[in-house]
Structure of OstA-like protein:
Amino acid sequence: MKLLKLILLLFCCTFATTGFSQKKEKLKIIYAGKGDANNKEGFTTFLRDNQQQVHFVHKGIDFYCDKAVYYSKQDFIEAFSNVRMIQGDTITMTANYTEYSGKTELAFARGNVVLTEPQTTLTTDKLHFDRIKQQAFYNTSGKVVRDSSGTITSKIGRYYIPTKKYQFVDSVVLVNPEYTLKTKRLDFFNDSGHAYIFGPSTITGENNKIYCERGFYDTQEDFGYFERNAKIDYDDREVKGDSMYFDRKLNFASATNNIVVTDTINESIAKGDYAEVWKAKDSLFITGRALAISVQEKDSIYLHSDTLMLTGPEEHRITRAFYNAKLYKTDLAGKADSIHADHKTGLTQMINLARYNSKDPFAIKRKPLLWNIDNQMSGDTIHLISNVETKQLDSLKVFYNAFLVSKDTISDDGFNQTKGKELIGLFKENELYNVDIIKNAEVIFYSRNDTGELIGINKSKSGSINIKISDNDIEEIRLINKVDGDLSPESMFPKNANRLRGFDWRGDERPNSVEDLFKDDPPLNLPIIKGLDDYVPPEDFFDEELRTRIDNAKPEDKTKENKAARNVPEKKTLEVDKKPDLKKKKSGN
């Protein structure tokens, strides 16, 4: 008899629902083990039996649960215990409790909520699901697990089913075996694994850490683009730039515009317009107004060229500067085709490129030059040796066609000149104090007394020459194995003999400041970076359209609760509405 009543009840519900569906499709009860109608309160309770759960459908979506309470007039159902909601063959949601309105097509689930689709699983404590917009929303913290991309957690989340896009807000964390991403906002596309990052963000891997305030990352291919205060921290290097690219598989990074690379171990900084970092090779390439700064407590060294390369591990780093390389510190300046500096040994080589041979009309202009105080040194190759402990100059060597020139302190066009096959100089506190010219030495020297009066001009040849320098003045010249030469009065010294063969004073080329390093460069013309689009806040999940649906679902009996509005938050009050009326306050009204 009870079974007959249940069958009749199910038949009546189905018949009533079918008849009404011609106007508007209502929830349809498919199966229940037991049903109990409460006509006074206007609801029917359905229970499962030992074989099946309660089953009802609405517009292609299936609900299963152990217990359901159905409010027929409001077309609203409450589902309890082991709830499952299945949409087609792609979306399944399970929860301890779910309620659903057939009028608004809005579902609310709570208690161990799990939303799954082919590639991801979303878990949260409370979830809203709008079937019309095909969107799911939570604001009580949630977690999304994706097989190939890791796990994403956030306080607020939203899933757009048609585009398979997740939007995470507030305390967003993506954990992957290779890295951890933390950001304020994250748009994640499920099919492609593309992630768009908004706000202060970090991506931390085993050997690197990325920071940006706007970025893109491909979680499947492991590469990304980063902007706005973007930087990458390696074990011993920090790379900054207006726009950055990073490939985790290649352990490669590049940066464009306003590049700053800081070497924390070797206390050096590199700048330029474009940079590449190959971490596995310990290699940095930088070009476009490239500048390397060896940071020292009192007097840093600046090295500029078209292109810079820094290679080698931290304990043995090498700097290469090529194409119009220039060197500057307050008491030292240099210029060469290329400069090679070994930070471990303290050896800096200033090199003249081989393509500039003696027959090249520009060769003499390309020879390496070195200025210390007022002394200009030149030759085919120059070696500077520094003390790696004190960071001060120790000595220098000039190989082949060595020339030492300084202006006479009084005369207009007089130059003290020394030349030979090689030159060896010694430094004390970064000042040149001893010079030896070796083999085929020649000298022209303006000899003056203590009052500065010119005694005569010495032009001599010898096997070698030793020069003592004090307070930037030549104190003594010793000719060793003198061949010939005399001290002649200025009046008897021929004008056409006041320059040694190969003389080339290039004092106007000397950099006298950091800015001077760039004076021969073409005008700065940085490429325009289009950049990634700004963050556009989405429409509120509980927008006007949804609230209109909820209002239209109100029961005819105004004393009854609108079930469809039960778990919908109140409409937000605009900030302008919250501000006090300053005019009234001021007037005292």
Notes: Residues 2-20 form the longest helix (19 residues). The two ends are 75 Å apart (CA to CA). Residues 1-23, 573-589 have pLDDT under 50 and may be disordered. The first strand starts at residue 28 and ends at 31.
